[in-house]
Amino acid sequence: MRTHSGILAVIQARMEGNRLPGKVLRELCGHPMITHQLARVHQVFSLDEIVVATANTKENVQVLNPILSQYGYKVITPECDPHDVLRRYVATVSDYRRTKGKYPDIIVRITADCPLWCPRVGSDALGAFLSGDAEYLALDQQWGDGLDIEIFTVDLLIWANLAGTKASDREHVTPIIWRNSKNTLLPCPIDLSHQKWSVDEEADFRFVEYVYRHLYPVNDMFAWHDVYTLLEKNAGDPKLIAINAERKPANTGYTEQIAREQGLKEAPTWQEIRYGKEK
Length: 279
Hints:
By secondary structure, this protein is α/β, with parallel strands linked by helices. Helices cover about 45% and strands about 15% of the residues. The chain has twelve helices and nine strands. The chain has helices spanning about 35-40, 60-70, 85-100, 120-130, 155-165, 165-170, 175-180, 200-215, 225-235, 240-245, 250-260, 270-275; strands at about 5-15, 25-30, 30, 50-55, 75, 105-110, 135-140, 150-155, 185. It has a seven-stranded mixed sheet with strand order 5-4-1-6-8-7-9, with helices on both faces. Helix 3 packs across helix 5. The longest helix has 16 residues, at about 85-100. It is globular and about 55 Å long.
């Protein structure tokens, strides 16, 4: 088992967005979407600290941060470019050192657009990282989008902040890390690669609403397999079919940014960029 002096989980969040502004505060079963996800992250008991790192904008400082504080969650807003999320992570590490008198050894990265995030998957991923010697761990490509978790050493984060010069590396944090480190991928027991459970646009939010309406009243900490079972059972529901017909692939913002940086006429797929092949 890997020894460590601290595990810091960082959930990056912002109110701004071209496709669905303010999505993190959209109401799900009586509470803001992001608070459901934070409650789920808090079920991973090995974490020493959980921090929401918000972008340095007026809307985040005046609207998002106070709501998160009212729910009892720790929030920091580093004074850096809102698009430089990599620097935001480094500033969060510095805040950890100021408050605890030491640096964390391990960083857990989670994005705030995943209200179906599963604590069991997070715990399994962290356990796999702690029991191995990888510098970076993420989910295998057979996991559906929206269950994402990335775990890496703080040394890698510091290196990436110094070495990362591309806008895509600064904004998306980990591409420069997984391109330049020893990777481990957590396998999925079944193929969920065709599933998209994150929230990018209005249709995605309606999909998540559909899931919460069916599962949350019975078990507020439903797991990934509960979602999968529901979707299989209700595959013929006209409401679900209509919602899915409007949804777009995940990670299109990143793939389009890569196309612009490389002068490509057509954006590569996320699978081509991340795994070197199509799903």
